[in-house]
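Handout, section B. The chain below has 467 residues.
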Amino acid sequence: MTKLQPVLLSGGSGTRLWPLSREAYPKQFLPLIGTDTMLQATWQRVQALAEAAPIVVAGEEHRFLVAEQLRQIGAPTPAIVLEPMGRNTAPAIAAAAMQAMVDGEDPLLLVLPSDHVVRDAAAFRAAVQAALPAADAGKLVTFGIVPSAPETGFGYIQSDAGAGVRKVLRFVEKPDAATAQTYLDAGGYAWNSGMFLLRASRYLEELTRFRPDIVTAVRKAFDAAARDGDFIRLEKTAFANCPSDSIDYAVMENTDAACVLPVDIGWNDVGSWSALWDVSAQDDNGNAHHGDVISIDSRNSYAYARRLVALVGVEDLVVVETDDAVLVARKDKVQQVKDVVTQLKAQQRTQAALHREVHRPWGSYDSIDMADGFQVKRIKVKPGARLSLQSHTRRAEHWVVVRGTARVTRDNDVFELFANQSAYIPIGAKHRLENPGKDMLELIEVQSGDYLGEDDIVRYEDVYGRS
């Protein structure tokens, strides 16, 4: 049997689960069910079957989140293919296939979105094993979810009768409720999960057959990619010229090699807050809680809290509280959350893309207070990490170490600071912050000046390749 190569798709715009999920921190990086993030859970679900380290396809801005989260759970070092912009799943899987074949191999690709819930991992692995012979023989296998309700939020796949892997008859767009009910009554239909098992070369053959323009553009971007350690940065201009299309439209709806294996694995794409409520543990009144929540005389509601949230006499509500935003929505209206994000973007508000705590490759910063002329941040620097050598033209900074050891570069001086010690960085001074220790460095930064935006940075050296 051909080697099995997991491919984890880690794109996403972070709109449907706002305010917890955001553009810079979409849902696959969040621990929505249990303590592991959805990306981590996806790898752990498949690692027993994997015969190679994962290939992850992600956006450039998420590269260090992917690497760090997989490192935290001891996953083998992945090859991380970075898209300069999103172009949907057909180009993303093509780039992964090219990476899988770069050393002359031709593995079976198990393509998995990294932001889905699968509650029965054993049944999932059994389904993959059952689909291997068909994929090894050149079929393009997708996993269809046995429908439990006339769901209108998913596409459907109609297949031949029979058991096991079967031929796809047609793909159906998201139906209305009445049509979805006819599918359930008729049988032979499954929800389209977006999970695939296919040989790398067979996918590229079929994509070339139906969409040669996509293959040509991705090949140019891949061949000209910059390789930086485990990162494969697709060339921006060539990839920007690639048409945007899904694997369903580009290949699966056209090829005569499309097959489907219907499965019952406790799958959910967690596409809304109501879907997350549905897959979360609930109390006797149907309430699902995450964090510090008190519920009195309330039913069928979902609450996510960073601070104390109390629900009194409510029903069918979603309440999500983060450091800088609160969402209150009726459970049957949560699909409109994306309209909130659209409005935030139109108003150029940072809450559309960023949390108050912003993650960087070296650690994170949390803007805990600000007003005219000043801003206060809590900064965390990972052991062994360093910020860029930089300067600011319109702000000064004062650093106070709370925990750990800081190595500070200030113009020509290099010195160390310990807990309760501080340093002043004047406007225009070239400076750098490093953590030479084995523990997390935490400090308070007070910025002062007439402009405090993140774009007031001149970088001279940066180990993370930023300009």
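Note. The mean pLDDT is 93. Compare this with the example in section A.
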